[in-house]
Amino acid sequence: MNVPCVRVPREEGEATRSDLADADLIDDDYEIAVEDGNLYIPITDAEAVPDDLEIVRRPADERRTQTRPADLLGFDPSYERLGKAVLLDEDDPDRAWEIADAVLESDLPVETVLNKASKVKGETRVRDWELLAGEDTEVVHREYGCEFALDLAEVYFSPRLATERHRVAEQVESGERAFDMFAGVGPFVVPFAKRGAECVGVDINPAAIEYLRENARRNGVEDRVTAICANVRTLVPPRVDASEGEGATERDTKGAPNYENWADRIVMNLPHSADEFLDTAVAIAGDDCVLHYYDIQHEDDPFGPGERAIRDAAEPEYDVSVETRHTVRSYAPHELNVCLDVRLERSSA
């Protein structure tokens, strides 16, 4: 059958294959082919491939030497790959153990199998895991040339957002000042820094900040990354609405670094409650700032609530223009995870 493949000259093949493998874009179900001096590398997601690579559709031979979990089970199990870990979401314990055994017997390069044991919970957005195989919940994940260490039991991380993170990172230019308000282990911050940006990553989870610092070192960008464990609201002076009167609550910012009017680019990837932090984002924004605002809304109006919230927070101090309305993925029945790329330009009025 015809499958999407990256076509590169044979002499560039190994470097390209390595980059695609780092981004987890190689389709392991098909063989890599050589023909007429070119290498044809089957890929899983053509839209996620960098624009400078050529994509063609061509026949590809199925890889028959690799035993997959489905070959052993008789059905195609659902799982995610994260580094050398497989992540399951199975309510039936017997089925989970059956899949774990098949994963380990297959030819997948896997050392750890984990089954989700709870929903994402709490302020740090972590979940409980059942360890079905392996020694612990720490993994090393590679994504578009970056390497991330993380402990799934201590931090939040979604491998499904790799393509979205790459989309945003490609917009970053050297010399920018980028601020991630909910940085986690650094999946936005680290690639931004690798593109030459000066970055600040903030998270309320101490474990996430320690991994962010480690990941900055792993990727050779520690000199361009500042990692701060804090509630991001404490990093700008409080704005008290005069209508709230003397009873207004002020935040304690004593001793905290001040990032007011600092950023050229801000990431707000906290979809269920990012709107609650828009006043802080506006305070952090410089005179000309791009805001990447993530939201989860009903499919009938996925972008409207976020755009209205941003305008309410930023206008008239800033002129607000929406540059991109982007659907990241389906989140739940009739609900979409979306991103608004919004430019804030300080008003001259």
TrEMBL record:
Please list the GO terms describing molecular function. Answer: tRNA methyltransferase activity
Instruction: Indicate whether Cytoplasm appears among the record's keywords.
Output: yes
The record's Gene Ontology cellular component field reads: cytoplasm
Note the superkingdom of the native organism. Archaea
Q: Which InterPro entries match?
A: MeTrfase_TRM5/TYW2, SAM-dependent_MTases_sf, TRM5-TYW2-like_MTfase, TRM5/TYW2-like_N, Trm5a/b_N
Would you indicate the residue range of the signal peptide?
Answer: none
The protein, known as:
SAM-dependent methyltransferase TRM5/TYW2-type domain-containing protein
Q: Supply the source organism for this entry.
A: Halopiger xanaduensis (strain DSM 18323 / JCM 14033 / SH-6)
